[in-house]
Write a structure and sequence with these properties.
Keywords: DNA-binding, Repressor, Transcription, Transcription regulation. GO terms for molecular function: DNA-binding transcription factor activity; transcription cis-regulatory region binding. InterPro entries: HTH_LacI, LacI/GalR-like_sensor, Lambda_DNA-bd_dom_sf, Peripla_BP_I. The protein is α/β, with parallel strands linked by helices and 341 residues long. It contains 11 helices and 14 strands. The protein has 3 domains: 46 residues, 434 Repressor (Amino-terminal Domain) (Orthogonal Bundle); 123 residues, Response regulator (Rossmann fold, 3-Layer(aba) Sandwich), CATH 3.40.50.2300; 149 residues, Response regulator (Rossmann fold), CATH 3.40.50. 39% of the residues lie in helices and 16% in strands. The chain has a 6-stranded parallel β-sheet with strand order 2-1-3-5-7-13, with helices on both faces. Strands 9-8-10-11-12-14 form a 6-stranded mixed β-sheet, sandwiched between helices. A two-stranded parallel sheet has the order 4-6. Strand 8, helix 8 and strand 9 form a beta-alpha-beta unit.
């Protein structure tokens, strides 16, 4: 079916059909005529030639999104949902390439998307980190959940310092003063580790609590690591043992639950725990459900796509720090009376 057939069926010119179906004639063509053209096109099963249209407009209505492993990570998939929702609402299609953190695959992906003449590009990572901008990225590429080491690109990352402060403040507000931080093993590799620790120390200072080095423990960022770290904390003398624990992520918090239960401790009656990530299938499913800090994946995805489409302004030298809200459930309570807190 050709455009001329739609024009004949609607009783208008092909130019009128083109303007109606492209959205270019909304202020010049009557609503009745526009409705007649669309009805004729629908009845005829006519679809505009997107290739020809892109040649005329120099736009393909596509956005490239390159990621390392977020496409296969359930909780980070919310970033994709946020980006895709904005793209869809504005008539764009997202082309996702998952590189599995392979530099050669990433290079090929950038070349392929640029060759496809995508209108804009997002460069995403699974977790907050500083990265060197890869060669070949088109101007205006937006960095999502990562920040370019040299600046010069729009970027959005979670405000992990604020998130660490919120987690610690939640425990201080419940009356705790012996608060441990179960941290990631290597802060040089995980930007969020140091930032969350800074937030933890900031709240201790503002609350008049002297940090105890024994209450800052590093371990693998999984359930086994969390369990081992908390067992170490629970081996401390009673006078130094924590009444509350802030865990670097929800998987470590899950291990903290196991360690507490093995010692016959009830959560939160004997030990309060706060996690981080609000990870699907973990935080809300623990017993009791875990109070945690949510990573704003969906909101970051939306912001990045809005910047890519020119719907909002950005600072190319300073990444946007997105607020990480506390999600209150049932794992935080006052310290036990016997703790002498």
């Amino acid at each position: 079916m050709r455009m001329s057939d739609v024009a004949a069926a609607a009783g208008v010119s092909t130019a009128t059909v083109s303007m109606v179906l492209s959205g270019a004639g909304s202020d010049r063509i009557s609503p009745q005529t526009q409705a007649r053209v669309r009805e004729a096109a629908k009845a005829a099963g006519y679809a505009p030639n997107s290739v020809a249209r892109s040649l005329r407009t120099q736009r393909t209505r596509t956005i490239g999104l390159i990621s390392d492993t977020i496409a296969t990570t359930p909780f980070a998939g919310r970033m994709l949902a946020g980006a895709n929702d904005v793209a869809r609402d504005h008539g764009h299609l997202v082309i996702l390439v998952n590189t599995d953190d392979d530099a050669e695959q990433e290079r090929k992906a950038i070349l392929a998307l640029v060759g496809q003449q995508v209108d804009a590009m997002l460069y995403a990572r699974m977790w907050h980190r500083a990265v060197d901008a890869p060669a070949g990225l088109p101007a205006g590429t937006v960095f999502l959940d990562c920040r370019p080491t040299e600046g010069g690109w729009p970027a959005v990352v979670p405000d992990d310092r604020q998130g660490g402060a919120s987690a610690t403040r939640e425990l201080v507000a419940a009356g705790h003063r012996r608060i441990a931080y179960v941290d990631a093993p290597n802060p040089d590799e995980v930007v969020a580790s140091e930032l969350r620790h800074q937030g933890y120390l900031e709240v201790l200072a503002e609350s008049g609590i002297t940090p105890d080095p024994a209450l800052h423990v590093r371990a693998a960022t999984d359930a086994a690591g969390g369990r081992a770290a908390v067992e170490e904390l629970l081996d401390l003398p009673t006078s130094r043992r924590p009444t509350a624990i802030f865990c670097f992520n929800d998987r470590m918090a899950m291990g903290a639950y196991t360690a507490a239960h093995r010692r016959g401790l009830a959560i939160p009656d004997d030990l309060s725990i706060v996690g981080y990530d609000d990870q699907q299938l973990i935080a809300s499913e623990l017993d009791p459900p875990l109070t945690t800090v949510a990573l704003p994946h969906y909101e970051m995805g939306r912001w990045a796509m809005e910047v890519a489409l020119g719907l909002r302004e950005s600072d190319r030298d300073n990444p946007l720090l997105m607020n990480c809200p506390i999600i209150r459930r049932d794992s935080v309570g006052p310290p036990p009376i016997t703790a002498g807190n």
